[in-house]
Amino acid sequence: MMASTTTLRSGISDLVNDLVKIGNNTTNADQQTALLKITNALMILWQQVIFDQLNAQTSDYKTAIASLDDAKAAAAAAKKDMDGVVQAIKKATAAAKALDKVINFAVKLLV
Amino acid sequence: MNFKTTTRAHEWHRIIRYLFIASMICVLGACSTVSLTQVRQFGDATAALSTGATGAFGYLDAVEVQRKIYAVAADPSAGPTDATFTSFFESSSDTVAKGVEPRKVALDRRLKMLESLADYARALQELAVADYATDIDAASGELNGALASLGTNYKAATQKDMGLSEGDFHLIATAINAIGKSVVAERKQKAIRAIVPAADPAVQKAAALIATDLAPDSSLAKYVHTAVALTRLALESAYNRERKSPSSTFDSRLARLDSIGTMYRSEQGTAALFSNVSKGAKALGQSHSALVKAVNTNEMTSQEFTKALADLQAYVKSVQDFRASLEAAK
Question: What is the pTM (predicted TM-score) of this model?
Answer without folding.
Answer: 0.78
